Amino acid sequence: MRYRRTTAGVFSTLLAVTLAATALPAQAHGQPAFAAAQLRAEPNQVRDLTVVQGDGYATLAWTPVDGATDYQIERTPVADDDTVSGPSVISGVWRPNRQVNNSSPTFADAGFAPGSRFQWRVRARFGTTTQPYSTPVAGTTRPHWGDPNTPGQSLRTQWETTLGAQYTSDVNEYAYTAAVDELSDRVRVVEIGRTIQNRPINMFVIGYPKPPATPEAVAATNPLVVNCNVHGNEPGDREACLIMARQLAFTDDAGTLDKLSKTTMLIVPTINGDGRAANSRGNSTGQDLNRDYSLIRQPETQAFVEMVRDYRPIASFDGHEYGNTNTGDLPMLPPRHQNVSQGIFDTSQDMIEGHMYTEGAKDGWWACPYGCTGAGVGLSEETILRNTLGLKNVVNSLLELRSSGGPTRPDEGNTANNRRRKSYSALWTFHQFLTYHVANIPGITKARAEGIAFQSANTGRIVFRGSRPIEAYPAPHPGEAPPPLDAPTPERILEQPPCAYRLTEEQYHGARSDGPAGRQTTVAQRLAAHGWKVVKVADGYLVPLSQPERGLVPLLLDGQAVEGLVDGERIAPTLTGTHNGPLTVTGVACLAGATVRGPIRVQPGATLIVNGSAISGPVNASGAAGFVLTDSTVNGPVNVTATRGPVVLVDNRVSGPVNVVNSAGVAPLLAGNTVSGPLGCTGNAPAPVNLEVANSVSGPKSSQCARL
Ligand SMILES: [Zn+2]
Known about the structure:
By secondary structure, this protein is of the alpha/beta class. It is 25% helix and 26% strand. The radius of gyration is 29 Å and the shape is elongated. Zinc ion binds next to loops.
């Protein structure tokens, strides 16, 4: 407490000290200070300080002081009787760029050992001139989550038991994971793959009262996923993930159980177990796995991409740490690649700027755009999970934890304090992610359905590299500046998209050297991991662009790609104008923006690819190699029988019955179509799917299509 020279000042200070002592029990429960103390507060003294405890942090809030340029947060250890038991530290500096709402400043104080008791004071500064401290508020911080006497809740990670001195080892992670799995009906742990050094890559599948039994059943629940540790030397998020898994598995909180009853949460704690064990950024070959999600040269990234294919999460966070002292607590960034659909970008931004910035301002965490310091990061590489997932129509964000305390958290010279602040800020973020997700499932699924329709339509230019701009947030924005513009240069743009890429037998099935010895995979295996449709034709393999991950296809198969997989041959559309009369397809026909005034018949062994076209109909295909129809209208029936390769019908309007029967080898995709008439599916092996994008069918939906 600073003493003032005026009599009135001394009087009010003494009164404040007296009142503070008696007011503490009430304040410890978040009550404002006594009105009398407020009336007699010193000039420019911070008033109305409240402290609310969270998991690993305490949210301080106060009434702003006119003219303050920033505030200092002081934290002092106290005993149970609130006598001071250790030295005070300035643990935080609140700056106006910290949050979107400066009229209600908040600061998430963090880094302390959970369960300790402190008192906090806050003072304003005018420039470098400090003003009087607030009356102190004391409180006991939350202990490590979970009743030590309740099975399951009593589990602790190595990081928790060592109070942040050690990160959780691989062995401890596996034991903890197995115990959570064993003790909770809400959790199933699945091994989605193995690292090069044969470490399991586990995933928590969490639902209430229990998680769905199969990937297909999980996909039907609009799941969300957190990828916790791709860079082995950025372990902060992983510790948060392990704690969150325990909380979700064993909590009695009605609100959390309600959320888990409405979705399935997937948590992949350690995709890069080898890198974590070695504390290295890359995997055991030195490969940066977050530059490999499109190319999937490595078994770790392949496992994750196959999980996305099978479990179909609709939203994601990807956890990292970031070594820049001047950025916010929690830099975030949406998928920016310009091939990502507008709705996926917009919804990701809504999750970040609409939700995280707003909730961060309430709880005291400083979310901001990644790259806000002007560094050349946060760009459009499709090899980065953030962009790969955007191109897979997943609403998602990068999460960085600022590595060091920096000027706004000056008490993090202590390593454990620094680690705890990072991991508990990640825990806050992942809980907010679940909250946002459950509250916004209709908006996220709508963006996803529109993204799948947009991509499958194969319309518009292809950008090989280039980002959407991130606009500066209105002042006082939660960051110094948006990330770099990263607009595509002309040589990174292809104005007229091809219909498909043709790969040779050698390109498709040939041995490759771009992967770890003994674990190298072919192009065929990687495209299968992505879940892409490929048509076997007489002279090779056709990869149509008219499919849900269209924006990613050229980035791997075009010779102009920056980090391509193979130089596929661009197949141009064969018909773009009007065709009068019947059309018989032999070989490969590709209709783009075409009008066919007559019926279409696809001969056995032929391939038809149609997008953005109008067909009088009927359309009949029997024994085709592949059948792709997107973003088109057919005034008549569509009958697709005994196709030997992919069948894709997305976002069409068909007046007449649609029948897909006896397809073999690949599950037909029927999504987002409007059918005036019945939809019939029989004898397809595997059965048709809709990727959770419903069809609108006026007639009966029968047999295998009954639920599409
Ligand atoms: Zn990273």
